TrEMBL record:
This is ABC transporter domain-containing protein. SUPFAM superfamilies: P-loop containing nucleoside triphosphate hydrolases (SSF52540). One of its GO terms (molecular function) is ATP hydrolysis activity. Keywords: ATP-binding, Nucleotide-binding, Transport. Residues 1-229 form the ABC transporter domain. The keyword ATP-binding applies. InterPro entries: AAA+_ATPase (IPR003593), ABC_transporter-like_ATP-bd (IPR003439), ABC_Transporter_VariousFunc (IPR051782), P-loop_NTPase (IPR027417). It comes from the Bacteria. It comes from Herbinix hemicellulosilytica.
Length: 287
């Protein structure tokens, strides 16, 4: 069962198109949603949350059309946006009062526990919080209304590695509950490598892949060879080329089939970060 399904979703802006994207997030999984600046991550998340109107396609949350999601299910989605939009003059205490009215399932005890755990003062105004504190407060809110689906847009960016680790642990705790699901967009691939079960890579408004994280690194490989050998490699397998003064690195897809067909070149293991970098740069050789 999927918590989230996107089918052929298209959204056109003047200079950008979210182009016919499809991917699923299985219930109980953490989906890492990665892509460079402007690739379309926030647009996708806004579409999922029905904050923008899509031009075509279908989005289903727990099997319901996102446009017709019943209120009680809507209340089970915890959302954190980068640069939280909480009012500057509110304190955590004020926010708790507001959230109690917004969410029928608001759990004050859980919220207070998170404030303590994150060492967030009750009475300090939001504008006087540090970036890390603001992010933690947003996460505490998202986790305090019995959410079963967390949608996090760059929730760990701009935070130091220790705070990031602390927050990633909270996400891992959250996912221990069998039915809980996370969609986490991030620039920080190491965070995704640490906690995600699946990775969806969006590039220039299109989905390049949406796959199980562990299988991904077996599908791709890097061949290191002299520049003049690049042309011997079957272009159908090539997803990206990088050249430097020592030679060339060629990222290939479908490594198993490549190995069976070709004994001359031996692809080496790679990482999600490298796969993304190569694919973003394209098939033309670049230093
Ligand atoms: N309301 C809008 N009107 C016109 N263009 C928009 C609007 N919102 C977003 N865009 C454009 O859509 C593109 C994708 O933006 P989006 O915020 O989805 O990217 P992103 O992957 O989240 O990037 P980042 O990692 O930088 O946040 C950008 O070119 C942006 O300028």
């Amino acid at each position: 069962m999927n918590a989230l399904e996107l089918v052929n979703v298209t959204k056109r802006y003047n200079n950008f198109t979210l182009d016919n994207i499809s991917f699923n997030v299985p219930k109980g999984a953490i989906m890492g949603f990665v892509g460079e600046n402007g690739a379309g991550k926030t647009t996708t998340i806004k579409a999922i949350l029905d904050l923008i109107r899509i031009d075509s396609g279908e989005i289903r949350i727990w099997g319901h059309s996102s446009k017709k999601l019943p209120m009680d299910l809507k209340a089970q989605i915890g959302v954190v946006f980068d640069g939280s939009n909480l009012h500057e003059n509110l304190t955590a205490n004020n926010i708790a009062l507001i959230m109690k009215n917004i969410y029928p399932n608001w759990d004050q005890k859980v919220f207070s526990d998170y404030l303590r755990k994150f060492q967030l003062p009750n009475d300090k105004k939001f504008k006087d919080y540090s970036r890390g504190m603001k992010m933690k407060l947003s996460i505490a809110i998202a986790l305090s209304h019995n959410s079963k689906l967390l949608i996090l847009d760059e929730a760990t960016s701009g935070l130091d590695p220790m705070v990031r680790d602390e927050i990633l642990d909270i996400f891992l705790d959250f996912i221990q509950e069998e039915d809980n699901t996370i969609l986490l967009s991030s620039h920080i691939i190491s965070d995704i490598e640490k906690i995600a079960d699946y990775v969806t890579f969006i590039h220039d408004g299109k989905i390049v892949f949406s796959e199980n994280k562990d299988e991904l690194v077996y599908k791709y490989g890097v061949i290191r060879c002299p520049k003049e050998d690049v042309k011997k490699i079957d272009r159908n397998f090539v997803v990206g080329i990088r050249e430097n003064s020592f030679g060339a690195e060629v990222m290939i897809n479908n490594v198993d089939l490549f190995r069976r067909r070709n004994r001359e070149f031996i692809p080496e293991r790679t990482s999600i970060e490298e796969i993304m970098l190569f694919i973003s740069r394209g098939k033309e050789a670049k230093a």
